[in-house]
Amino acid sequence: MNTDADDRWSLVVPLKPLARAKSRLTPSAGARLRPRLALAFAEDTVGAALACARVRDVTVVTDDPAAGAALAAVGARIEPDVPGAGLNAALAHGARVVRRERPAARVAALGADLPALRPDELARVLDTARQFPRAFLADAAEIGTTFLSAAPGVELEPAFGGPSRLRHLSTGAVEIRSAGVDSVRRDVDTGEDLAAARALGLGPRTAARWLPVAG
Ligand SMILES: Nc1nc2c(ncn2[C@@H]2O[C@H](COP(=O)(O)OP(=O)(O)OP(=O)(O)O)[C@@H](O)[C@H]2O)c(=O)[nH]1
Ligand SMILES: C=C(OP(=O)(O)O)C(=O)O
């Protein structure tokens, strides 16, 4: 039973140091713009998540001081990474930190690379996720994962990385198949992904960095 009066979600967003983030964007964005775009994606993701009425707080797990400062300014709580342990350890750590303070928290992991994210679409995903102990949303390519949730009392068990859709299915998480959630599925790894996110509508920080360059 959830004994926490506040039933909203706590989101955990992982972010690699910007010097290494979004390496697959280098051919489209160039080496100088790539880290700035990676930060803009994260700022737009966190900004949209915090604008969602179902979200209580967003914890960004990162070891990048500049990104941490910028995302704290957007409203995120910043938690240091587990050195060298990788994405899933970072997510598990973020979820533990949230539940240390609020043991009955509803927790969900969300990629930092969703620059078209819309608060109303995230609300739709969260409302569906509430019905299951663990639930996830596949990325637009139907190969990876952009969102994974755990109800109060349930371990997150993140298994992100590459073809994680099947991995999350195999760990018993329920796949969310709702319509009208394209912006939550639209992660950006490549220039093609960025064009697809642009077609959905980029968030303000990404638009300001990318549109003057892309034309
Ligand atoms: N805190 C933390 N976040 C990570 C780590 N590895 C990946 N991430 C984040 O996990 C999310 C999904 O990773 P990817 O989509 O592969 O992003 P990426 O690693 O920046 O992209 P590539 O360099 O192109 O592989 C992104 O928000 C990354 O910043 C890690 O070791 N620690
Ligand atoms: C991290 C993931 O994939 P990618 O690196 O392709 O975004 C994932 O979808 O689990």
From TrEMBL:
It catalyses: phosphoenolpyruvate + GTP + H(+) = enolpyruvoyl-2-diphospho-5'-guanosine + diphosphate. Belongs to the CofC family. HAMAP family: CofC. Phosphoenolpyruvate binds at residues 145, 161, 164. InterPro entries: CofC, Nucleotide-diphossugar_trans. Pathway: Cofactor biosynthesis; coenzyme F420 biosynthesis. One of its GO terms (molecular function) is nucleotidyltransferase activity. Keywords: GTP-binding, Nucleotide-binding, Nucleotidyltransferase, Transferase. PANTHER family: 2-PHOSPHO-L-LACTATE GUANYLYLTRANSFERASE. The gene is cofC. This is Phosphoenolpyruvate guanylyltransferase. The lineage of its organism: Bacteria, Bacillati, Actinomycetota, Actinomycetes, Kitasatosporales. Pfam families: CofC. Signal peptide: none annotated. It comes from Streptomyces gulbargensis.
